[in-house]
## 1
Amino acid sequence: VNPRETLTLAVQREVQEEAGFLFNPTRVVGIEGSSPGWMRFNFYGEITGGELKTHEDKESIQAKWFDLTEVLDRRIDLRAADIIPVIRNAVVQQEKLFVGTLPSAIERANYTVSLAIVFNDNSGSPISVVTDRSGGLPTMSIEKRDPKSHAKHIFDIFGIADKICKEIVGVGSTSDLLFRGILTLAYDGRQGKDGIHFTLLYASSTQREISSDCSWQSSNRSDIRTLLSSDRIIPVK
């Protein structure tokens, strides 16, 4: 991602620079992080124009179409084999017609995680979701400039989720809940800020007792219902 870009603009630029195509991203199919300075967002989408790049420049040698089976079976020489699980996951999501999420262009100064902890009794009644005193979702952020707080990933979103459960919600940890996926993802670098926000969706098997700082509230959000009924989530590694 270049300075002053959104994630969507970044993937569109990268596809055009390296493959020659105009690209319309429709959903995020994976998120990876391995150090305090590196995070990769894998997008699924469609080609809307442009031409296959056949010349070498500073961005790439060239682009070429390959048979999917040959790629997945590693019958061609790949520069980096880490693309194989990314492609496999995208194929599975396409086959299941999974409706995923795209990043929202909302600027953030820090790394922030919100938890949507929900209970659904499958009776058709409204879903119950945990809210804090302000009526919003329990949220916690860390300073981007503090490398010690980033853990092994860009920042340990599941570690932050555990802290939210323990310190705000009053639930022991997220191990008592079922992770269902990423509900929202927000990033916008166009004003010079480089923070990012995740809302993680967890399902609770009961309307368990929680802290006095939080309460269970009714919700009819269709995006929550969609993720709860889906057997696909956005992988986070």
## 2
Amino acid sequence: MDPPRRIMEDTKRGRDGNWKPIRVVFIHGLEGSPRGFKTAFLCRHFHCHCESLNTGPIIRQYRALKVNAVKQLLYVFVACIVAESILFFRARQFITGCARLPFILLLLAIPFFLMFIILRRIRLTAFAVLRNMREVKRCITDCTKQIAAQIKRVQPDVVVGSSFGGALAVRLLSEGHWAGPTLLLAPAVDLLPRCVRALPPRTVATVVHGSKDKVVPIASSRRLVRRAGGNSRVELVVRPDTHPLSSLVTDGSLATLVTDLHAHAHAH
């Protein structure tokens, strides 16, 4: 059954007896907007509300962090090359014949191996560094208040959060601003303080994460699902996709996830 037909069937009857479309609040990511492709898709299939969030402070800090990381990598690479050049010229008289080529290859491999280790560490710790910055904390708090006010005003049936928006949705659940069914798309929960980085009891949520995600480690979503509070119904869906999870829109499964989550939540 195609997603549009599912959506027409999975509606709910209002107080006036008429069938109502599912109301969705979509929380976009750091570089997303109400004009993004996920928002456009949700607006075509649901009664979707999406407000523009001021994520500029976090984006600026994140880009500055990446620039500093590149500088560190260049320093490490140059230092390795200089040190290895000195080592090679001092050791070349002792290494002759067939042993010289493996020795040279080993020297060439060391800087790239170190760069790989540093890049991996930076990727895994970037959000941990960001969440301790005062400007980032203030931005997350302001965005949380904005979405909490929107939820109170709209009274949605389902909340959908993508990346940074997923982290905000988790915080809204933890702080009690929202308690309904929630769809989390590659949530960047490592941006949150540890005290609000968990789903409370009786949460109904689906977490979707791409197996090829290089921005938000899938391990963070696995921890989020594993540490959900008691009596929660939280499911992890792993897709062969990257961080934007664009395949959810191209194959229409984003609509199916929303409708199934809504139906599951109201069936209990």
## 3
Amino acid sequence: MRPVQECQLSGSGYRKNNEALDPARALWESEDLEEVKRLVTLYPLLAHKATAGKVTYGPQTGRPKHEIKNATDVHKHYSALMDYFTVNDEVRMDLQQLKIVRDWKMVRNRVRQNWLLLNSNDDETVRDVTAASFRLADEGDWKAALKTIDDGLFGVGPATASMILSLRYPTIAPYSEEAFRVAGIPSSKYTLKEYEIFHELMNNKADNIGCTPRDLEQAIYAAVYESY
């Protein structure tokens, strides 16, 4: 069993394994910048360790399943995307890059049965929608940027949209299950309104600590999986 599955009890999330979040909750309460820095440094290694193994998933029973034979390779591809989107001035994402974001979101958390729906987007639409979203975010309107992706791409909700934008913007934290629970949101329907609440919580806490919200999300994830 992959450590992610063991920690999250193979699909139950943290509802039945709530104590797994205790190290991350302690980090949240401590507001310890040095500990955040330590965990961010460890994040690539821990992400590799936590997601190691084969992942198989499909949208509905009876339809072909998609398999990622080496989940840790997805993190390498995602990290390369972050490097690219950070340094380039005008950016857009193609369908293959969007699949990398989806796959990394999947392997680092629980498998969800409808994630292959994203594949139905055509490449031109993905390019146009993400280009428009990045332009809005560059102008400072992250809410409109998030909504543009949520409205414009099939099978992509606020959580995946936040992970797309976090590739370029350190002030936008991915809407991960570990982070929203540690921030004080007990459960989520993954709506835009809920993400706005999460965004404010993460930015306020990051300001208190002296780090970025994106780094804080990585530190929370690393704190959970350091003991696994």
## 4
Amino acid sequence: MVPVKVALIIFICTAEVGLVSSSPIIVRAGILLTENSTLMYDMRNVRPALEVAFARALVEHNVHFEPVWVAYDDKCKQYNALGHANDLMSIEKVDVIIGPGCSDDMVIVCELTTYYPLPLLIGAGELIDTTFMYPWLIRFSYNTYSLWIIFVKMMKLYQWKDIALIRDCCDFPKNVTTRGFLNILADENIEPYEIHFKTGSINKTAAGDQVIRNYLKEASVYSRSESLNLMVHPSIAHYDTLNPAPTGFPVTTEETF
């Protein structure tokens, strides 16, 4: 297996060897991304950049990449990401995997590439606060930890004392994200009031509007101070502009950051 060292900002690799050779170093790379989705890291968006990067690696670093392109579905699906990653490792015998971009897909593939040590390069996966448990993962994106730090600084600036957190109780990646936020709040000795909902239980209808209004009213009852901040799950972020607003306190979503 060729030892690989990441060198550029997004998905560009170079090989590092002890001896200089005129023959190019061969790196077999598996590229695992979604296809025909609206995601910015979709295969059709990323592939042209990777092809340019591979060409530069050969000219500038004498490294020849042999790509194995694998596109799956039009949305994030853990079982497909895991299955294709296993095929890339066991059948295609790749030296490195680039992708997947989805946070939950990334986590499940990281479990595999940690057990069977293999470099995994990610340009997304931003919904996971920390990746210290995955030593073979190199992630180039920002992450939610930095977003939570900004939010805590906002709390201190505006002297927010009470927080209501409306969150999905069943969405795995969002739960991971929320847990990181709760841990940071715990470090500040802040315990938010939590309101849970289930994925799919709220939709853009009059009934859905009423459900979220009830959540907001519940949060406002909890607040005993002049300023309450509400952190809502991105999937119901469109409700932060309900008119007329059922409460008078600030509403913040993860998408705000």
